[in-house]
Write a structure and sequence with these properties.
The protein is of the alpha/beta class and about 325 residues long. It contains 11 helices and 8 strands. Strand 3 (about 115-120), helix 5 (about 130-140) and strand 4 form a beta-alpha-beta unit.
């Protein structure tokens, strides 16, 4: 029997310092996320991040937490329920960090007598820190089972027309209502070294301003190139003028160079050019979360209004929308036979 394991990154159990500290310790202890030597990672985590960041992050989570809990978890569970109903087979959700853990989700599938599992990392663009880490954990947990099931994996779907269509349908009402002067496509950032490591030639990624203008063999696994491909596909589908759009990257951490341009630095540049009204897509996320609702919907909006801008509208993520359920189940179908 077939089964599906949906994977998202994770969330604290509650918007207080203690649960956030637990979540951050697990997340930032991952060598795929903080890819420095183990001693340096331990020192950074215990001496710098964990004494200060949990309280700040907890305050941010409280701004978006709902009566039902973390938006990311609520929306991911709703999606899981809807995909299970459409496919009429066991479908479970596992979070790479926090709850419900991947191990528990796999156990539910095994207990349901599933012998073929399709792994669906819900990250449109590939990154070692998210997709790679999630798959590594799946393989680690599958390897512990007495009977190892047949496993297949949904590949990155960054420019798949079904994913693009679902996001375009989320954006169209916002664009019609807000009539923005400019549209941002703001993706989660990564350290530059992460994308350089995906270039087997060592001569393409981040070597020129045009390195992400098209997908070629050298950048086929590059997160930044895949983000630009997502944006190009959405621009084409929404019939947007390219000169009224910008691709940018948010959520950088630390002092090392992250992929550019940075969202918070793009905003004052746009205001200086006379832009007043902005709409923001966040197509690295398929469910609304801290990075979309708080970082863009609240913080970036406050920054924009503080500069003198008139409005900044966040396009809702895919969440458990009808279009995303239809698109995701269609993406999964070839793996279920």
């Amino acid at each position: 029997m077939n089964g599906v394991l949906l994977i998202n990154l994770g969330t604290p159990d509650a918007p207080q310092s203690g649960p956030v500290r637990t979540y951050l310790r697990e997340f930032l202890s991952d060598p795929r996320v903080v890819d420095i030597n183990p001693v340096g990672r331990k020192l950074l985590l215990e001496a710098v991040i964990l004494p200060l960041r949990p309280a700040k992050s907890a305050a941010a989570y409280r701004k978006v937490w709902t009566d039902r809990g973390s938006p990311l978890l609520v929306e991911s569970l709703a999606l899981t329920d809807r995909v299970r109903a459409v496919l009429a087979m066991p479908v479970e959700l596992g979070m790479r960090y926090g709850n419900p853990p991947i191990a528990a989700a796999l156990r539910k599938l095994v207990d349901a007598r599933v012998d073929r599992i399709t792994i669906a990392p819900l990250y449109p663009q590939y990154s070692s820190a998210a997709t790679g880490s999630s798959l590594e954990e799946v393989y680690r947990q599958v390897g512990k089972l007495d009977v190892v099931p047949n496993v297949s994996t949904l590949p990155p779907f960054y420019d798949d027309p079904r994913f693009i269509e679902a996001f375009a349908l989320q954006g169209e009402p916002v664009l019609a209502r807000e009539k923005p002067d400019h549209v941002l496509f703001s993706f989660h950032g990564l350290p530059e070294r992460h994308v350089r490591r995906t270039d087997p030639t060592g001569k393409h990624c981040l070597q020129s301003p045009q390195c992400c203008d098209s997908m070629i063999d050298a950048n086929r696994d590059c997160y930044r190139a895949q983000c630009f491909a997502t944006a190009r596909a959405l621009i084409a589908r929404l019939a947007l003028s390219a000169d009224r759009t910008t691709v940018c990257f948010q959520s950088r951490l630390g002092r090392t160079p992250w992929i550019k341009p940075y969202t918070d630095l793009v905003l004052p540049e746009l205001f200086a050019r006379g832009v007043k009204r902005i709409a923001v897509f966040c197509p690295a996320f398929v469910a609304d979360c801290l990075e979309t609702l708080e970082e863009i919907g609240l913080r970036a909006r406050d920054q924009w209004l503080g500069l003198g801008g008139e409005s900044l509208a966040l396009v809702p993520s895919l969440n458990s929308s009808d279009a995303w359920v239809t698109s995701l189940t269609a993406l999964l179908q070839p793996h279920l036979h």
